[in-house]
Each structure stands twice: as structure tokens, then as C-alpha cells.
Amino acid sequence: MRRFIDNPYVLWAVLAAPGLWLTYDQFVAHGERAFSLSGIWSCWLLVLTMAVTPLEMIFGPLPWLRRSRRYFGVASFFYASLHTLIWLLGVHMWQIIASFTRPSVVPGWIGYVIFVLLAITSTDGWVRRLGPRWKWLQRWIYPAAFLTFVHWVMTTEHVLDAWLWSVPIMVAGVWRLWRHQKRMRRA
Predict the structure, then answer these.
(1) Which tens digits make up the pLDDT trace of 141-161?
(2) Which of 28, 112, 134, 164 would you call most buried, defined as having the most Cβ atoms within 10 angstroms of its Cβ?
(3) Is 26 helix (H, G, I), strand (E, B) or coil?
(4) Predicted TM-score of the model (pTM)
(5) Which residues contact 102 (CB under 8 A, 6 or more apart)?
(6) d(CA 35, CA 33)
(7) Helix boundaries (H) for 62-158
(8) What is the average per-residue pLDDT within 16-40?
């Protein structure tokens, strides 16, 4: 059973299953839910990715969760990409251009560009190439998450849901800043 749980292919299958359903719903069944659900799944996985360190601070070492964190982050990027693709395929070119001036969409675009850079550099090869700078680069997840949730709050009809998911990210970000400041004072 342990080998099954630790198998990255099993984890990828579990993480991809909702994406396959959303893709089918959008492109085959012509459903209406895939656009919003892909964005929500991206946010859920983003929260999980960012919660690993705080959870370990509370509960002690969580080796499986720590090993799986990069998978959760890449899956979050996948769902953000699906969300973006569905939107791009459903609008005209002039709407895409106009979106770069809409205050509710601009944070989403900026956050997505940061996500792209983080996803590209999430491979083992990039980790080796960048060395200690990789960790610094991956900390850009905090501004990307903040921008993502600003985008969500500004574009959703369900503002309370967006705020409920935003609070853990804000708490994690403030906690990280506090922890960093504390370390800097000791040094």
C-alpha cells in the first residue's frame, strides 16, 4: 500500500482526473462549469501547495506532503492554464486585447505570467541549474497567489468563497514574512 501511495504516477492521475472531466465537460459536452471550476481547482491546489510549510510547523514533519508539494504546484498551474485556455477560446481577439486594461483581469494575467515562469523552472534540471536562486524564484508564488486571489475576488459572483480561500494564503504570506524578519533579526 505504501508503494502505491508514494507512486508519483498515482498522484498525477488523481490530480489530473478533475482536469479530464473539466476538459470533457467544456469541449465535448459543451458545459458551462469548466471555466469557473478550473480556476477554483487551481486556487485550491495553490492553497495546498503554500500550506505545506505552515502545516509542518504545526504538526511536525509531513514527508509525503513535502515530497508532493511540487506536484501540487504544477497541477495548480495546469488548472490555471486550462482556465485561461477556455477563456481565450471563448472570446474574440479584441476582448483579449481589452482584457489587458480591465482592473479585474490584469491581476490574473500578471499572476499567470509568474505561474508560467515558476512552472518552467519547476523541473529537477532547473533546480540544479539555478541552485540557491531556485528557492528565491519559487518565492514569487506569494505575489502570484495574491494576484490570483485579487482576480478571483474581483471577477466572481461568490465573493465569500473567494475570501474564504484567500484568507489562508494571506495568513501564510504574513506568517512567512514574520518568520523571515525574525530570522533576519537573529543574524
Answers:
(1) 989 998 998 999 898 888 888
(2) 112
(3) helix
(4) 0.87
(5) none
(6) 6
(7) 63-89, 93-99, 106-120, 124-130, 132-138, 141-155
(8) 85
| Residue 161 CB-density burial (10 A; 0-12 exposed, 13-18 middle, 19+ buried) | middle
3-class secondary structure, 173: helix
Q: What share of the chain is helix, strand, coil (3-state, %, to 5)?
A: 85, 0, 15
Of 6-15, 72-81, 112-121, 163-172, the least confident: 163-172
Q: Give dist(CA 108, CA 101) in Å, integer.
A: 12
User: pLDDT-based confidence at 1, cuts 50/70/90?
Assistant: low
Q: Where are the domains of the chain?
A: 2-186
Question: To 5 degrees, how large is the angle CA 104–CA 106–CA 112?
Answer: 115
CA atoms within 13 A on the CB side of 150: 17
Q: With b meaning 16 or more CB within 10 Å and e meaning fewer, what string describes 20-29?
A: eebbebbeee
Q: How many CB atoms lie within 10 A of CB 63?
A: 9
Matching residue, cell 482584457: 99
Burial class (CB in 10 A: 0-12, 13-18, 19+), 109: middle
46 in Cβ contact with 169 (< 8 Å): yes
